[in-house]
Design a protein that fits this description.
Elements: H1 9-29, H2 33-57, H3 67-94, H4 106-134, H5 144-171, H6 175-189, H7 201-207, H8 211-223, H9 235-262
Helix pairs in contact: 1-4, 2-3, 3-4, 3-5, 3-6, 3-8, 5-8, 5-9, 8-9
């Protein structure tokens, strides 16, 4: 008879996160090669389509920078933001059955989904960056450490907002479809494909109310050499757009957990 092995709480937590990560890989890619193929095609299409439309048909869109490189430094933070928001929002209902297991908590599932999304998106855009480098584009970030921290800030912003949206759709399930639709206009007004400098100043003043646009400007400021960010870029907007949603999301998670314990 084998002796009983008692695992430490740390080891249990690591095993839970590892199992959830493997489950996320299986759920995202599916059991066939189609899931993996679609995972690769979607980000490639979002890079190639704007390059063909704006970079060649409309000739020079960004003065002083190669448009594919300019696009990458805006598309990656937006893609991280959108995917983490949606996956966190959908993750509560999609994995509700796992909460019946005592070692698994809701925050474990949300954290695993966020880590998987970050790793997958960075890997995909690394492949795109290597492809652009082979074609002769200079894709190396001008300030790589600061740029990586800006991506971390976007991910925390998205995680907090996703947790708030998860609380919203738990009470209003129909809001899920509305949130998904809103990402399309957000894509257009955040300066992902077109520089905000091409708009009149009074339009930029209104667009600057969108915190995601500030994060995209920070990403380009650290990624592109000698990039001149919009005058409306606000450090306070960047910080509070990350801190406030994250704190509110954690508070809502805490309230949800307490309500489950008392009921």
């Amino acid at each position: 008879m084998q002796p009983l092995v008692v695992r430490s709480p740390y080891r249990v937590q690591v095993d839970v996160l590892y199992a959830l990560f493997l489950r996320e890989v299986s759920a995202r890619f599916g059991r066939s090669r189609v899931g993996l193929l679609w995972t690769l095609i979607e980000p490639l299409a979002q890079v190639i389509a704007p390059v063909l439309i704006f970079g060649f048909i409309l000739d020079r869109v960004v003065t002083g920078y190669e448009y594919p490189v300019y696009l990458i430094y805006g598309l990656l933070p937006y893609y991280l933001f959108r995917t983490i928001c949606v996956q966190t929002m959908e993750g509560v209902n999609a994995s509700r059955g796992l909460l019946s297991y005592r070692p698994i908590h809701l925050i474990d599932m949300l954290f695993t989904k966020a880590i998987f999304t970050i790793a997958l998106d960075l890997f995909l855009f690394l492949i795109i960056g290597i492809g652009l480098a082979v074609l002769g584009f200079d894709v190396v970030p001008a300030r790589p450490v600061e740029w990586l921290f800006s991506l971390l800030g976007v991910c925390l912003f998205a995680l907090g907002l996703g947790m708030m949206l998860a609380a919203l759709v738990s009470f209003m399930p129909d809001a899920r479809a509305i949130v998904r639709v809103l990402f399309m206009p957000l894509y257009l007004v955040s300066g992902v494909v077109l520089p905000v400098s091409r708009f009149p100043s009074w339009v930029v003043d209104w667009l600057a109310l969108n915190p995601l646009m500030h994060w995209l400007e920070v990403s380009r400021q650290f990624g592109l050499p000698h990039y001149r960010a919009m005058p409306q870029l606000s450090g306070a907007m960047v910080f509070f757009s990350m801190a406030v949603p994250l704190l509110l999301g954690l508070a809502l998670y805490r309230l949800r957990r307490l309500s489950r314990v008392t009921t």
